[in-house]
Amino acid sequence: MKKMMNNELMELLESKCFPQLKKRLDGMNPVDAAAFLDQLPEEKRPLVFRLLDKDLATDVFAQLAPEAGRTLVDSFSDGEAAQMVEELAVDDAVDLLGELPANVVKRILQGTSPQTRELVNRYLCYPDGTAGSIMTAEFTELSARMTVAQAIAHIRSTGQDKETIYTCYVTGPCRVLEGVVSVRELLLARDEQLVEALMDRQVIRAVTTDGQEEVAQLLSRYDLLSLPVVDRENRLVGIVTVDDAVEVLEQEATEDFEKMAAMAPSDDRPYLRTGVVTLARRRIVWLLVLMISGMVTGSILAKYEAAFAAMPLLVTFIPMLTDTGGNAGSQSSTLVIRGMTLGEIRPRDLLAVLWKETRVSLLVGVVLAAVNYLRLVITYPGQEMMALTVSLSLVVTVLMAKTIGGVLPIVARSLRIDPAIMAAPLITTIVDAVSLVVYFSIAHHLLGV
Amino acid sequence: MKKMMNNELMELLESKCFPQLKKRLDGMNPVDAAAFLDQLPEEKRPLVFRLLDKDLATDVFAQLAPEAGRTLVDSFSDGEAAQMVEELAVDDAVDLLGELPANVVKRILQGTSPQTRELVNRYLCYPDGTAGSIMTAEFTELSARMTVAQAIAHIRSTGQDKETIYTCYVTGPCRVLEGVVSVRELLLARDEQLVEALMDRQVIRAVTTDGQEEVAQLLSRYDLLSLPVVDRENRLVGIVTVDDAVEVLEQEATEDFEKMAAMAPSDDRPYLRTGVVTLARRRIVWLLVLMISGMVTGSILAKYEAAFAAMPLLVTFIPMLTDTGGNAGSQSSTLVIRGMTLGEIRPRDLLAVLWKETRVSLLVGVVLAAVNYLRLVITYPGQEMMALTVSLSLVVTVLMAKTIGGVLPIVARSLRIDPAIMAAPLITTIVDAVSLVVYFSIAHHLLGV
User: Strand ranges (DSSP E) for A124-225?
Assistant: First the structure.
């Protein structure tokens, strides 16, 4: 359906029916209008963008893909760009300016009001990925001595520009955060009540330097629509709204998926719009590291050349052993990494995880080994010792894979390394080497090779 | 800090200082109070729960872990349980009742009002994972002919029980959904304006049978605070609020992580609270399937026994080859699976993905092969043909791994199979078998073994 709509719009554009196109666009949700602009060829975007109603244009601009936004700004005069920065919410303006070269940013900011310029410059200083970098300055501020009627009047007269009016923050001298009150509570209270009687003084808050993932988790944990961000002196400097938190959570999950599959995390650009060289660069570093580790495993294997020259059948069980070990290990590491991301597992749970993984792995390992033993004595009758060797190796491999997989992410976190790098690929490589040593040691003892 | 607070509360409980304990609990955020109850031993929960203020008690109950909620209800009389069902938002009540045996549910519902009973029964019929199963009936309804002043008065008089008052839905006869208007728009408008002049008629909506993930994506895409859910006749039956959407997104990401690491998805219970047998059961099925596939790979290898008996050195490159293939393949499958989850890649993009992966894999494969070739000619001087064999196999393996990894998840989606099962473990197993065939075929031609 979306697709069909976009096709109609394309036809209007190609047949230059601009009045009809404008009418259609003005009736659209800004998100859908932005999606239409995103997929247009670069040279058509300025034309279509200029058709939009002024108010809609700002909303659409805020929703564009970073790339589309940047190319569009290139077509603006400095004055038009300054105007756009003035009208965007400060977090969107900062996102846009962050994409542009420094000299262009300087030129554009010269055309904005001193307040905007100062605000934007302050925001540009917060490092990427912190609460400061995703917050916005458009919030509603009340004072404790206002009555409900005054507060509602204040909101009605100033609310037009605010990112969210539904959660109001009560501040004292120097903007120190004193409390929070929702529009709902104000609406349900009597007109003459004081804000300070309604407000909650225990405000859940973040500091500008907190990580964006923590901020998103707080919003999600306490079901908030927005979270106040304060500086070190507890002065209110911005808010993070729930829609930004949703975006952060999705982006962090994507990054974790990527890191856990041995890739450098992406810049949030969809796969189909990312260039071949960029994709290759993000993948190659880890592949190289893991390939070299694979060579180490190979050199371990080289030590046992005599064993498999004497008994080539042993080699045929290697893929099954190492694959099972790798899979068992990555199950455990995935559960533990995800548990840490969600705050369910902390470094002090190390022993609890170790104990749990030990028991799980024994249970799993014994079942797998039994199935394997049965299959081998049926396929290779009379070779019970070999079947025993493979099955025993399987139990030990699963045990070691699961304890290593469960423990290494926690150790990484304790050493302040991102646990996601301890995911499937690295665990598999480590477990490969370990399982081969186990396998050939057991073979040496039981089979005498 | 949280931990310290809970320790203080525990001390108050153990020294039976109930008045102080009650005072502390009543001042807490319901989320934190629920977390304290969750971690109490089962037999202490009813005692502490009864200390809470009645209003707080309902909020705390809604936030309890499913297990804690169930054990608490066991300590209630049927009348008390009915009262709780009456006071909870309908989605929380349904969550609770879904955990209890059918005869208990029936007994409890007998004590509730006919309206609640009918509502709950209707909600219990929506299958798990649909919009119907996560929606709530507590929304604000307006009619198009109301003035702004009437609408605000209506909200102020009825808003107490609503899950969110900030987005109001305008309905006509038979509750047919006609439009949507935010409290913000009402507050910023003049008192005498009509709701129908302010409302947006293009309402983004879900149908009760839509998947919960689609619903969460809609809320996130359009930055909504709530999404209306309608039945097949376009009658408004409930809303899904953004906090539920955040929960769904986190839960779906966790499930994807689990499925992609070859585990059956969990029931949303934290790792440390899940029993050993449950954990083992969720992991063993896939491990068995993959172990048996590993045996197939082994039997492919068995065909080349003569080759590696003649040249045992060949065996030592197997781990490096299969690991690199597995990693290269799981990078591609992870990107494509995540891209499909986020709606960025669709089945009709199959050829685009195939073409992109082909180019990326040639780039990556050639670099890896070059590094590998250099290393081999240095380590094994005079064995250039062997070095060529390994390097050539590497290029072909990476090429096949990445195209298989990129294409299989899309094929799975087209066949209506969950693409997440085409993640690292299965891709690795498939690529293992393919890369061994490639390796030994190339060795046969180049080295004559």
Answer: 140-142, 167-171, 177-182, 206-207
Which stretches within A168-234 are classed as H helix?
183-188, 195-198, 212-221
Q: What is the spatial distance between Cα B91 and Cα B94, in angstroms, rounded to a whole number?
A: 5
- Round the average pLDDT of chain B to a whole number and report it: 87
Q: Please, where are the H alpha helices in A15-101? A: 18-26, 30-38, 45-51, 54-63, 66-74, 78-87, 90-98
> What pLDDT, on the 0 to 100 scale, is given for residue A367?
93
pLDDT band at B3 (very low <50, low <70, confident <90, very high): low
- Cβ contact A319–B301 (<8 Å): yes
- Check: CB of residue A373 under 8 Å from CB of residue A303: no
Tell me if B394 sits within 8 A of B369, measured CB to CB: yes
Tokens of A395: 């139990």
What φ, ψ does residue A261 adopt, rounded to 5°? Answer: -105, 25
Which tens digits make up the pLDDT trace of A256-283? 888 877 777 776 677 877 888 888 888 8
Give the model confidence (pLDDT) of B278-321 as tens digits.
888 888 888 888 888 888 888 888 888 888 888 888 888 988 89
Give the pLDDT score at B127: 85
Specify the pTM: 0.74
* Pairwise CB contact (< 8 Å): B305 & A319: no
pLDDT of residue A3: 55
Q: Report the pLDDT value the prediction gives residue B267, as an integer from 0 to 100.
A: 67
What chain B residue is nearest to A151 in terms of C-alpha separation? B187
CA distance B98 to chain A (A): 22
Q: Chain B interface, mutation test: which of A25, A28, A31, A184, most B Cβ atoms within 10 Å?
A: A184
What stretches in chain A show pLDDT beneath 50? 1
Nearest residue to A212 via CA among A265, A94, A120, A133: A133
Q: For residue A346, give the DSSP letter.
A: -
Per-residue tokens: A365? 């390992």
Structure tokens at A290: 């893991």
Contacts of B405 in chain A (CB under 8 A): none
Are the Cβ atoms of A323 and B294 closer than 8 angstroms?
Answer: yes
The closest alpha carbon to B423, from B435, B412, B437, B414, belongs to: B412
**Structure token digits, residue A67:** 């790339």
Residue A73: predicted pLDDT = 86
Question: Distance of CA A353 to CAs A331, A349, A435, B34, Å?
Answer: 13, 6, 21, 24
Per-residue DSSP letter, A200: B
CA distance B326 to A434: 18
Q: Do A363 and B223 touch (CB under 8 A)?
A: no
Contacts of B349 in chain A (CB under 8 A): 272
What does the pLDDT read at residue B192? 92
Within 8 A of A344 by CB-CB distance, chain B residues are 270-272
Q: Are strands B167-171 and B177-182 parallel, antiparallel or unpaired?
A: antiparallel
List b or e across B244-276, with b for residues whose CB sees 16 or more CB atoms inside 10 angstroms: bbbbbbbbbbbbbbbbbbbbebbeeeebeebeb
Contacts of B338 in chain A (CB under 8 A): 254, 257-258
Q: How far is CA A37 from CA A94, A271, B386, B388, in A?
A: 21, 18, 54, 49
Q: Residue B145 class from Cβ within 10 Å (0-12 exposed, 13-18 middle, 19+ buried)?
A: exposed
Sign of the C-alpha dihedral, residues A296, A298, A304, A306? negative
In chain A, residues with a C-beta closer than 8 Å to the C-beta of B260 are 257, 334
Strands of the sheet containing A226-230, edge to edge, are: A206-207, A226-230, A236-241
d(CA B446, CA B449): 8
Whether the predicted pLDDT of B367 surpasses 90:
yes
pLDDT score of B268: 67
Is B305's CB within 8 Å of A316's CB? yes
Q: How far apart are CA B399 and CA B419, in angstroms?
A: 21
